[in-house]
Design a protein that fits this description.
- This protein is an alpha+beta fold.
- The chain has 2 helices and 8 strands.
């Protein structure tokens, strides 16, 4: 099922914007855009991606459970796969007994809707589904 879904981005939690700046400098990355997702209490900073590649999303929480991710140290959080129809993806997983975390699609930090598989379904790997708008 996932073999034909392109990687949209990889999400990395960082404790603050200064840590993001250090990581971007270390890796030679530059910011493309940023947005805030109130539902997840997160500032999301997307990097510019080379043609044909996927960006990194740095997630800086200011509340909620992401503050405690990896004991507050941050780290690799999720992979995001692009889907053509998020509601259809949600319905398919629900029909198979694995509803996604949110009951409705969430407006992401960029021009997309998103939702997540519960990590228990993937043995701890967090998978986000993204529908570009």
């Amino acid at each position: 099922m996932f073999h034909d879904l392109p990687l949209h981005h990889v999400g990395i939690v960082q404790p603050d914007e200064e840590a993001v700046a250090r990581q971007m400098a270390l890796l030679g990355l530059s910011e493309d855009y940023r947005g805030y997702v109130p539902q997840f209490h997160a500032l999301c900073i997307f990097t510019q991606a080379a043609p044909g590649s996927s960006p990194i999303e740095f997630v800086v929480p200011d509340g909620g459970p992401l503050l405690k991710f990896n004991k507050g140290a941050g780290g690799l959080h999720h992979i995001a796969l692009a889907v053509p129809d998020l509601r259809a993806t949600m319905a398919r997983f629900a029909a198979e007994g694995t509803p996604l975390i949110e009951p409705e699609p969430v407006k992401g930090a960029g021009p997309f809707l998103c939702n997540f598989l519960p990590p228990i379904a993937t043995r701890g790997i967090i998978v986000e589904f993204v529908q570009p708008l």
